[in-house]
Amino acid sequence: MTLPRPLPTPADAAATPGPLVLALPKGRILKELGPVLRAAGIEPAADIHDEDSRRLRFETNHPGLDVVRVRPFDVAAFVAHGGAQIGVCGGDVLLEYETDQIYAPLDLRIGACRVSVAESAETAGRDDPARWSRIAVATKYPNIARRHFAARGVQAEVVHLNGAMELAPSLGLSRVIVDLVQTGSTLRANGLVETEVIAPVTSRLIVNRTALKTRPEEIAGWIARFREGLACSA
Description:
The protein is α/β, with parallel strands linked by helices. Helices cover 31% and strands 29% of the residues. It contains eight helices and eleven strands. It has a six-stranded mixed beta sheet, sandwiched between helices.
């Protein structure tokens, strides 16, 4: 009788030979990354910036490096599980994801924003948050929200939404929201005010810890390239 082969583990994936894979987030951060990638000497295939392209994996000017384009929240999962050895990930995702499989050696100083609490302008300041025992929170960051309010002795009843958080207070889904804020214009347009900043956020270079051990020269080389590129562009 032939036993089935065991499924690969994150360590197996990270140690698989072949080109290193750099996971990049779709959208605004990918555009901001352009100068950073060029400073590090990385030129992905031109269609990586084409939102209509169906491709998800792209070659670069380095035979030993491929790029994958995924959702911002998925970058951490790809790197943590070894599908990609390197990635670029927002600090908000790292705070939410919480894993010991990711090492974040370098702040890329792009994508600056913040994770904040906001609520309706009509209710803001009406009562003392120190007296709350529980609060309904709409967010795509349930772990961040729960930790933040638990530190104040408040139980967060999370309504997990992936978008349109700003609608939740006016439709009675929650008292407050926890969301990523850049300029605050979306909050103001929907009658909300920012009441507290939980954490400032920028994008970071992240590395799979197993890959750092199994392919140290390659990984360290790319970290050094990004660091030098940042120094030159400062």
